[in-house]
Amino acid sequence: MRRGRRRKAAGGGVDFCSLGLLRVDFAGSGLPVRKVKREYAGAFKRFGKQLRRGYRFKSDRLVSKGRLDAVDNHVTSEGVPLFHDYADNPGFPGRLSPEDVCRRAGAVAEAYGFERMNNIIVVGNGGSVNTTRAFYEALKWSYGRGKKVVIVDSMDPDKIAAVKGECIPEESIVVPISKSGNTQGVLDAYHQFREYPVAAVTNAGDGNRLYQAVKKVLDERGLGGRAGELVLPHPPIGGRFAGLTATGLFPMALWGLSVSGLRALEEGARVVYEGVGADVDVEFNPALRLAASLNYYDTRKGRDIIFSPMYSDRFAGFGTLFTQLLHESACKAGVGETILTASGPDCQHHTNQRLFGGKKDMVVVFFTVGGEETGGLEAGDGVPLEKALRFEYAGTCCDATEHGIPNFTVEVDRMDARAAGALLAFAQYAFGVYPSLLLDNNPFDQPQVERSKEIARDMRGGV
Hints:
The chain has 17 helices and 12 strands. It has helices at residues 33-39, 41-50, 82-88, 98-112, 127-143, 157-166, 184-191, 209-220, 227-230, 246-255, 259-276, 286-299, 316-330, 351-357, 385-402, 417-438, 447-461; strands at residues 5-8, 15-19, 22-25, 119-123, 148-152, 172-176, 200-201, 231-232, 305-311, 338-343, 362-369, 407-412. Strands 1-2-3-12-11-9-10 form a 7-stranded mixed beta sheet, sandwiched between helices. Strands 5-4-6 form a 3-stranded parallel beta sheet, sandwiched between helices. A two-stranded parallel sheet has the order 7-8. Strand 9, helix 13 (316-330) and strand 10 (338-343) form a beta-alpha-beta unit. The longest helix is centred in the C-terminal third of the chain and has 22 residues, at 417-438.
């Protein structure tokens, strides 16, 4: 099994752990790995029990039996999260390979006779669209061919009207995505695009309202017999962890990412999965060490806000996904951290004031791209723009260290498909699984989210 590489200089100035294209720098954390191991030895030993089917988390005990969505449905019999096993195991039941996904994308183009499929309109909420958003924002400058992905994540009439005004049916495909097929917001939004060509990611069945709506449109177009090609199954994995399934891969294939591009996403994730699993020691496991360090500053030092400046627009979509992973997975039973993502260096002109001049309740996790491959653009004084951007990050990082503010840096060598897959896999553990396990909260359910949906349905029924 591949292990992360850790390096620490004799003087303590260098302390990082790397996995493939991804590296996490702990030099500014103020928390040596030996202290993390000592403080969390008991918690790490508990992981084996927590990832066993039937384990009752502390957060599970606060959920009524009828609402209980226990870990049983989200781990294999060997205690590996299903999302990890899906991406790492070609034999996963019902798994769609990159070749399968691209074949389905080709079937869509053939079924509708597209001359130009310029707009991929993805309709969904939360995890159903956030990985697509992350992949698209990360890759659009490198892989774009004049096409665009448009995310419709609400029934906001202004937004939907604008999308319909910009994206004509003759050049667009609508892709509604929902695991249950019964999320009202997705149904409401999709209903506005029923005259558009459609391909969906959901599960066939009489009780699935989205599937029935899509099937009706296909029947009206004479394509009902091809529903098996144009409706891809959603695996038994929660949306926020399903990015390396058809949920995240199919829209990217429609956008134009090739089999090799989809493979690169999977391969980048696979390298990281091998180095961040629960069987990898914290000394060589950057996702576990980051999660434990953040937990330490939250529970021991009262620093429960994670400020994450992102020094590349390519991280823009990932910020939303990180937020969902942490808040929906770990923030239960009255505990859990808050993450605030922002675009750097712009955030230095506002949130740095909060960081350095406000309450001492924040830690910093920087995100940077390390490569220097921007095409020779320079500032007026001759400094390459990539170096100018790097100086802005380095200045804030050094300032944080000088002020005694714990800080970490997550860096990718370059932002290509392989790196995007690696970053996704890292985040699923660093912001999803491990923060939850350390708090003894169920990483895979979202009881308060479901309750809000129920209240909205009740209110709607009274209209």
